[in-house]
Amino acid sequence: MEIKRCDWVNSDPVYIAYHDEEWGKPLVDDLKLFELLMLEGMQAGLSWYTVLKKREGFREAFDGFDPEKIVLYGEDKVEELMQNVGIVRNRLKIKGVITNAQVYQQICREEEDGFAGYLWSFVGGTPVVNHWKNRAEVPATTPQSDLMSKALKRKGMKFVGSTICYAFMQASGMVDDHALDCFCRSTPSAVES
């Protein structure tokens, strides 16, 4: 029997694995959510497939997306990253990651439930399960992604527009937008950490 997947998945094994094992699975780990949000920001203007294929390069270049290390980056590190062919070499996006690491630390200090609790609050702490009939019905933004975007921008984060936030919400499982006939469609299960 043929496995049904969302129609945006191409035939590349990397993309299939990402869809089957990660996309839309509820994620509540602060650091993993930070990494995913930074990668979504790097994707702005590009395809997610481009970023996904460079993900390991990003992890290596940005010290595993460890905010404690990233906040210490200076101009020398920015220049080094600008020469790294394993990542998206965009100065504004690179500097945005540094700024966002600082904001991440601020949110973790201020929020009792940490970064994950703060982000999940925009969906009431529970995944939103949508029932779109086809990909054309899936919105680029929602009221929840608008609120998340505005709140993160107020705190000083960069590359967190509503479209980026909605893609992040889909990827992190805050929203289940798997096609109705996709084998990954939401079933009652534990939230991943």
Automatic annotation (TrEMBL):
Pfam families: Adenine_glyco. Keywords: Glycosidase, Hydrolase. The keyword Hydrolase applies. The keyword Flavoprotein does not apply. It is an enzyme of class 3 (hydrolase). Its EC number is 3.2.2.20. One of its GO terms (molecular function) is DNA-3-methyladenine glycosylase activity. PANTHER family: DNA-3-METHYLADENINE GLYCOSYLASE 1, DNA-3-METHYLADENINE GLYCOSYLASE I. This is DNA-3-methyladenine glycosylase I.
